[in-house]
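User: I want to check something. If I give you two sequences, will you return the structure for each one separately, not as a complex?

Assistant: Yes, each is folded on its own. Here is the first sequence with its structure:
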Amino acid sequence: MTDFTIDPPQTVGLPVVGTEAKFPVRRVYCIGRNYAAHAVEMGHDPDREPPFFFQKNPDNLDPSGEFPYPSETSDVHHEIEMAVALKSGGSNISVDEALDHVYGYAVSLDMTRRDLQGEQKKMGRPWEIGKAFERSAPIGPIHPVESVGHPSEGRVELKVNGELKQEGDLNQMIWKVPEMISYLSRYFELAPGDVILSGTPAGVGPVQKGDEMVAHVGGIGDLTVRVA
């Protein structure tokens, strides 16, 4: 017997360094334009305006190391990000207590159908069609806080076929990790299994089938993803 009319979907589980157990994903929050240089390249003022977030779906996170080039687009962009995985949550979390809720960190990518996102922006519509498509968030294994601490500085870079495309430093984030957690918790009740993608530095650009992307975040490691 089952309490559901159809079989429920499986919980998305991400690999964790040092254990065979998986990290279960509940929600995925993504902050937009969180590095000043990237805000400028996207045509926006880099001043510290209030943060904004959009969401991807849990099953958009993909640890396979392969990114299938998606349909209905001719302009897919890479965006390297540090992912923040939460072990606990709540509402109205203070900045001072925010890091107590972090389980670990990972290297990730926010792949974007830029042409479709641009069309939605012009019409004032949501971005999901450009952001929340299948396997749009390649991600590496999660490194628990016990092994990497809470990285607040460190080189962030992405190479495509060996050529450096994006570079920056975690200390260049406009809104730091504790501030992101605190701000989100004012509008959503955060919970164990939530993942936050923390923004990308300047240099976003297109990829093509056959490309190899190597993403690096200082203190966490590398993520290699092939565009299939």
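And separately, the second sequence with its own structure:
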Amino acid sequence: MTYAFEPAAVTALPIRGTSETFPVRRVYCVGRNYADHAREMGHDPDREPPFFFQKNPDNLSTERTFAYPPGTNDVHHEIELVACLGRGGTDIAVDDAMACVFGYALGLDMTRRDLQGEAKKLGRPWEIGKAFEGSAPVTAIVRAAEFGTPDAGAIRLDVNGETRQSGDLTQMIWKLPETIAYLSGLFRLAPGDVIMTGTPSGVGPVVRGDRLEGHVDGLDPLTVEVV
């Protein structure tokens, strides 16, 4: 096959302890998946059906700097557990869902909150606020066999040494097996798919010069400087 121009490189994430990389296919993000975060965003945290938006694969970044994006004056941090799939399918049963997980990483869903807010008011999609260059800094992937299952564990984000977000994976409204099963009823999941599983409360703005440090036990720390 002859291309009219050179195609873009495949986005791939490092895998801890190996020279192999994880080729990314799609990036799904779960909205408002922690009750306290739903409340701080002005929503009822009852178990309504989950909803999703997408980032682009090349929004993922392993750089340790985050370039403040154009067109906004209000960029917010959202720390998240990231699940990376090694298997997929459609209509996956909850009991079978965890067998699809290749590994886990820690990520930030950086958000142009002002642009997202305008889109919400107008009933428009969120991509302008979510899917911009470098909007998802992530760590290396830790294989599922090494990490275990994300049933519980502290998740935290410090900004300039002060804790801004603090929660526990037990606080997810929709647990990861349920999320995978539900998502597979809407899309055909496949190896290389990435799921950002939602953020705890405490989201807030960043400015140039801020140092963000994310933590989940068992994963590499995520340290990012806003530039």
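Because they were folded independently, the notes below concern the second chain alone. The CA atoms of residues 28 and 41 lie 20 Å apart. The mean pLDDT is 94.
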